Amino acid sequence: MNALGFVKQRHLTVVARLLLASSIVICAAISARAQTGTMSPYQNEKDGVSAGGKWLEFDSEDKMTAAKKVRFLLLADNYFREDPDYKPRVQLFCTNGKFTLADFNPGVRLGRPDYPGFWGQPKMEVLVRIDDYHTNHGWNWVRGHFLAMDKGTVRGLIGAQTFKVEVRTKSGMQIAEFSPAGLDSQRVKQACDLTPKKP
Predict the structure, then answer these.
(1) Beta strands in 13-80 (DSSP E)
(2) pLDDT, tens digit, for every residue of 45-83?
(3) Nearest C-alpha neighbor of 59 from the set 71, 67, 41
(4) Which residues contact 93 (CB under 8 A, 6 or more apart)?
(5) Helix or strand holding residue 90 (H, E)
(6) Within 10 A of 72 (CB to CB), how many other CB atoms are there?
(7) Do the beta carbons of residue 158 and residue 53 sit within 8 Å?
């Protein structure tokens, strides 16, 4: 092989390696985006965008009423022992600029409810920690899959640095640990008309 042929061969090898490296970087970026949970699992809901800190915001519009809907999602820092692939999560739901509801989803089956509420709905007692403050709450137990949170806890959560929920699951008491710091309070105020409030 003459010198010119060697240079051409070397140039092609370098180009091929650069193309391969670029392909790997692009695939890794796509995979990383998918793993951050920004893709919405719901039809007609836009993919999530950062709402500050570890929070994600998902927007949608009701096809019939044109109501603007916003869902804020915060995943726990840990998972429960039954399912290491699904972290507990807190979700806030807002419609047309007003807070609608919030739920705590442990990602595993809850234990049985503790007592009936005022209207007969099943409730479960949970221990909640917001920063250095902790208290018991009776949250509505919904089909053993999630708990409906009270508005006071939500207002404490959106301004907190630390948020923990101790809940009884089918396999016993477990604690979900969250890092809610960094949430853009203006986004929540605009979408839900909610402001942080210390408990």
Answers:
(1) 49-50, 55-61, 68-75
(2) 889 999 999 999 999 999 899 999 999 999 999 999 998
(3) 71
(4) 69, 70, 71, 99, 100, 101, 102, 103
(5) strand 89-95
(6) 26
(7) no
